[in-house]
Amino acid sequence: MSVRSIWITGARGFIGAALSRARAVAGDVVHGLGHGEGTAPPDSGLSSWTPGELDAGMLDELLRRTGRPEVIYHLAGGASVRVAEADPESDFRRTVECSARLLEWIAARASGAPVVLISSAAVYGEAGTGMIAETTPARPVSVYGRHKAQMEDLARDHAARGGGPAAIARLFSVHGPGLRKQLLWDLSMRLAGRPDVLRLGGGGQELRDWTAVSDVCAALPVIASAAAADCPTINVGRGLGVPVRRVAELVMQAWGGDARLEFTGVSPPGDPFSLVADPSRLVAMGCRCDVTIETGVAAYVAWSRHLLAGMAGPSAR
């Protein structure tokens, strides 16, 4: 198998870092770009790391040093519904303007290089309680989802105008060791303090399609191979909705203790009731997300327990 040169924007983020390591293990030469100072850690999988804002100057410099990329995975951008609600302008700059600059540069300087843009199930909004196919109209109910939908439109225009083949990967509730935000991290942080009551927003019956980051990393190269002028959109999920209450109970069981689980009944702004993928397109491409939430939670709690014990110091162990 020939060695490929790939670029990953947002390579120091949770998914970007996992993808960098996975592609390096697969034999690719991986060049990372995005926020994060200094050099890449030795175990990052990165052959080079270019820190800073994604712009033409940064991209030109990387092109001079490494040559034309054979695939670009674009993960840079906003990554939190709550942060986007709190600061819409910043999220727009990080997601929409950043994507526009990248696509303009590809069209001008690396036309023909396939690009995979990492989007989110948040673009679907309130789409009912069944599995959501890619043909479902995008009706986002959050700032985060609206900006991801705008990014998708830019990608379709880019591919249709001859800027290069593109594909969109819509990810559903990605989890795994290394994730230091969202529900699993919040639960771990709080359970480490041995609370009597663990109170969460919502009602507990909200459904999410929990997808392991390892499965995402296996799916993205498959999606890259499908990049084309019609910019296909492909869901990345298991096709199985798991209630938030069930996930919280699994985390609590893995941590141990006697905390009582309660729900406020008030959902955070921008959170749909159900987001469950119809993964038929991905499965037809020969790729399936198989890691169960039970396996995923066990791995996550083992990682978070070790990390939090280290942060607390030897006396907490």
Notes on the protein architecture:
By secondary structure, this protein is α/β, with parallel strands linked by helices. Helix content is about 40%, strand content about 15%. The chain has 10 helices and 14 strands. It has helices spanning about 15-25, 55-65, 80-85, 90-110, 145-160, 180-190, 215-225, 245-255, 280-285, 295-310; strands spanning about 5-10, 30-35, 45-50, 70-75, 115-120, 165-170, 175, 195-200, 205-210, 210, 235, 240-245, 260-265, 275. Strands 3-2-1-4-5-6-11 form a 7-stranded parallel sheet, with helices on both faces. A 3-stranded mixed sheet has the order 12-9-14. It has a two-stranded parallel sheet with strand order 7-10. α4 (about 90-110) runs parallel beside α5 and α6 crosses α10. The radius of gyration is 20 Å and the shape is globular. The termini are far apart. About 45% of the residues are buried. The mean pLDDT is about 95.
Oligomer: single chain
Roughly how many Å apart are the termini?
46 Å
How confident is the prediction overall: mean pLDDT? Answer: 95
Report the sheet with the most strands, covering strand number, pairing sense and barrel closure: 7 strands, parallel
Key features of this structure:
globular; 3-stranded mixed beta sheet; 317 residues; 7-stranded parallel beta sheet; alpha/beta; 10 helices
